[in-house]
Amino acid sequence: MKVAVFSTKPYDKEFLLLANYDHRHEFQFFEARMSEQTARLAEGFPAICTFVNDQLDGEVLLKLFGGGTRMIALRCAGFNHVDLAAAEQLVMTVARVPDYSPNSISEFTIGMILTLSRKLHRSFNRTREGNFSLDGLIGHDISRKTVGLIGTGKIGALTAFALQGFGCRVIANDVYENRELTDRGVAYVSREQLLGESDIISLHCPLMPDTHHLINADTIALMKQGVMIVNTSRGGLINTEDVIAGLKSGKIGSVAIDVYEEEGDVFYEDYSNKVIQDDILARLLTFPNVVLSSHAAFFTVDALQEIARQTIENLTAFEQGEQPGGLINYQLSRPRQKEPLKTEHQLPETATK
Ligand code: NAD
Q: Which pLDDT does position 13 carry in this prediction?
């Protein structure tokens, strides 16, 4: 099947081509991000393959549909950027890669927590400059600290077990309790209790209307003085301006973020020779107690291999008229409609939202 791949980086191409060893699919790689302007590049492709910062709202989906696209293969787990309601109405299949390597993200999260607790980022820079003093580098043990995890799915659970290995007390908040965690001594508490008791708060829930800006001025006010906040989930979980205010006042002791609400304009690009126009991001980068990475928690060989493998599986299943394993628009899990697809002018108004 012909597949247009968007937001392509060299590693995407390398791993997708390796996983497509039998040449079943014919990939065309575009560096451009999917948007209203670039959607026409997909004309004539029954399937497209996109990543976390591609725009897949109703307008874009309608354009893709008009160009003949019927399947979107996300090479990521999160799908908050896809207008699923519009996809349902257009009868477009959307599939993701739900669990390519949760270890990659949980291990990265632990790395960020240790980096901030022991100021490894500053230590590294200092010795590179020939400065071997320890002034200002006093850290904290994480052993015996309380860590609050919001979201205890695949990544949150692995993070909990790793933290228990360090001797942390782990508490959690989720809409569902994970028995594996309670069996191993993790206590589920209300979000308020978690915010009030945690020395370290790490976010592992999806971005949805009820989790948007769950870290904000009001919830920061409930936290312990000097709290560490870690976000490897989705940028929109945090009101970044409120976090900056918390850092300036000292209420927040340190922050690690791998995801940022406005990351789409900057992340995955080289800005080292340019002026960053985003003042909030630029301010974040000035704090000594902030570590920021560019949505890199997933970025391991293991994860890239698995993303490519599952993406190909999703594409092949769609091509064969089967239900892709990573299908996320569940109405389509009913048998595929046989009647002709609606044309653009027949679509309900809501499909264009
Ligand atoms: P998952 O679906 O296994 O777990 C998500 C958990 O969040 C579930 O247990 C769910 O019940 C819980 N949840 C849902 N709504 C909640 C709410 N309102 N309050 C508290 N908990 C709630 O997902 P996962 O694989 O563990 O991934 C977690 C997140 O990590 C994803 O949503 C994704 O955005 C992010 N992620 C980031 C990267 C990266 O590179 N930084 C890579 C993959 C995934």
A: 98
- How close is the Cα of 152 to the center of ligand 1, in Å? 7
Question: What residues does 228 pair with on adjacent strands?
Answer: 200, 254
Known catalytic residues are 234, 263, 295
Instruction: Give the chain's domain count.
Output: 2
Owning domain of residue 152 = 102-292
Residue 105 CB partners (closer than 8 Å, separation 6+):
155, 232, 297, 298
Ligand 1: distance of its center to the CA of 73 in Å? 19
Distance from the alpha carbon of residue 142 to the mean position of ligand 1, in angstroms: 23
Are residue 96 and residue 109 in the same domain, yes or no?
no
Quickly state the pLDDT bin for 275 (edges 50, 70, 90). very high
Q: Are residues 271 and 317 in the same domain?
A: no
Indicate if 308 and 288 belong to the same structural domain: no
Examine the fold and report which residue of 292, 309, 332 is the final residue of a domain before the chain moves on. Answer: 292
User: Are 258 and 163 part of one and the same domain?
Assistant: yes
Burial of residue 316 (number of CB atoms within 10 Å: 0-12, 13-18, 19+): middle
Q: In what helix (H) or strand (E) does residue 28 lie, and over which residues does it extend?
A: strand 26-29
Closest residue (by CA) to atom 23 of ligand 1? 153
Per-residue pLDDT tens digits for 120-162? 999 999 999 999 999 999 999 999 999 999 999 999 999 999 9
> Please, what is the Cα angle at 65 between 63 and 69, to 5 degrees?
115
Q: Is 288 helix (H, G, I), strand (E, B) or coil?
A: coil
| Residues 164-223: tens digit of each pLDDT | 999 999 999 999 999 999 999 999 999 999 999 999 999 999 999 999 999 999 999 999
Statement to judge: residues 240 and 310 lie in one domain:
no
